Amino acid sequence: MKAVTIHSLGQANPLVDVPTPAVPADSVLIKVHATAVNNVDLAWATGKRKKDDTILGLEVSGEVVESNSAVKVGQRVAAFVVGGAYAEFVSVPANRVIPLPETVSYSKGACIPVSYLTAYQSLFWLGQLQDHQTVLIHGGAGGVGSAATQLAKALKDVTVITTSSAAKTQACKENGADYAIDYEHQDFEAEVDQITDHQGVDLIIDFIGASYFQRNLNALHTDGHIVIIGTLGGEIVDQFNLRYIMVKRATVTGSMLMPRSEEYKAKLTTEFAQKTAQLFADGKLDPVVSGAFDLPDALAAQKFMHDKQNVGKIVLKV
Ligand SMILES: NC(=O)c1ccc[n+]([C@@H]2O[C@H](COP(=O)([O-])OP(=O)(O)OC[C@H]3O[C@@H](n4cnc5c(N)ncnc54)[C@H](OP(=O)(O)O)[C@@H]3O)[C@@H](O)[C@H]2O)c1
Questions:
Q1: pLDDT tens digits along 189-247
Q2: I need a labelling partner for 151 at 20 to 30 A (CA). Which of 11, 70, 124, 161 fits?
Q3: Which residues pair with 36 in a beta bridge?
Q4: What is the annotated signal peptide range for this record (predicted)?
Q5: How far is the CA of 155 from the centre of ligand 1 (A)?
């Protein structure tokens, strides 16, 4: 089959021949119709994270063409994989496939696994979001941010506040955010203080990291949760007074989905699929697609993300 690997990405024709994956017991082979770009792909491709010359890509949508499990051949699915998605075929454990409703295109389907699973886990498993609470979602116009906004609004009766650059606040609102703070011209701490009548938010979904850490704690309600899932704005907090955590009785937690156990990923996928299937079918959950590239143009697609041009996800058609 053809695939794009870490080393072939920069070549004039990045499609290289690699063996079609085997299909172990309890697994399926998916003929990939689309995949989507993630920051990890960029980190792998630029060598920021060490990885062998693996096939890039974390998520696919497509059609099951071989099955060693109860999943039927011909079933339309999406799936989260740890590498291997920028390819014509991918093999996935059957308990990790998300059935794709007929109404969801393959392009949109490819945008579901990473962003929505991450957002679902962060909001509900780690962040314990409850009805009538307020959640602050940083990077609200990105893949995870747009998914988190939709999931929070669809599954709970909550107020959603996003942050984004000025050009993307309207997109955040159109995606369902109740308030969209423009972090370039507004101080999100002051805005949250005003929106919440000095109460602060109950949950913060953050992938900016160090540069927001103190301000996040300042914007948090007592007993609130901060879920850290990325460090786009730095990893090291130089000086921090631990007293803030005690005073706020804050729960600061974080997670990386990729290294989680197979059992965890399967449990998350199963619960997510059960809770959201009808919402996707009805269009109440509707992945935001920023643009689509053909697989050989994967490098240009990555540059698009690197330059922060995307609102929502970037699709690669296979
Ligand atoms: N831990 C996990 O399991 C997990 C899983 C999936 C993703 N992630 C991480 O989550 C993050 C978001 O992923 P994504 O797919 O949503 O990426 P994305 O689509 O690129 O969205 C991220 C958005 O954040 C904003 N941003 C970037 N740098 C910023 C900064 N320094 N300060 C403020 N805003 C900034 C940008 O929008 P603006 O133009 O508005 O600034 C950007 O579009 C990445 O770090 C990714 O690695 C973690």
A1: 999 999 999 999 999 999 999 999 999 999 999 999 999 999 999 999 999 999 999 99
A2: 70
A3: 315
A4: none
A5: 22
Q: Report long-range pairs for 206-211 (Cβ below 8 Å, ≥24 apart).
A: 206/138, 206/230, 207/138, 207/139, 207/144, 207/231, 207/232, 208/138, 208/139, 208/232, 208/233, 209/233, 209/234, 209/235, 210/234, 210/235, 210/236, 210/237
Rounded distance from Cα 41 to ligand 1 centre (Å): 13
Give residue 228 CA to ligand 1 midpoint distance, Å. Answer: 11
Using the 3D structure, point to which of 254, 275, 305 is the last residue of a domain.
Answer: 254
Alpha-carbon distance of 60 to 78, in angstroms, equals 6
125 & 233 share domain: yes
> For the chain, what's the residue count?
318
Ligand 1 atom with least separation from CA of 233: 31
Domains contained in the chain, number: 2
Which residue lies with its CA nearest to atom 27 of ligand 1? 232
Do 13 and 69 share a domain, yes or no? yes
Is there a single domain that holds both residue 214 and residue 83?
Answer: no
CA of 207 to the centre of ligand 1 (A): 6
235-246 pLDDT, tens digit per residue, is 999 999 999 999
- The single-letter DSSP state of residue 78 is E
Same-domain pairing of 75 and 159: no
Using the atom order of ligand 1, give the atom closest to the CA of residue 229: 1
Map tokens 């909550």 to a residue: 158
- Closest ligand 1 atom number to CA of residue 165: 40
Among the three residues 254, 272, 295, which one is the final residue of a domain in this structure? 254
- pTM, two decimals, is 0.97
Domain that holds residue 17: 2-112+259-317
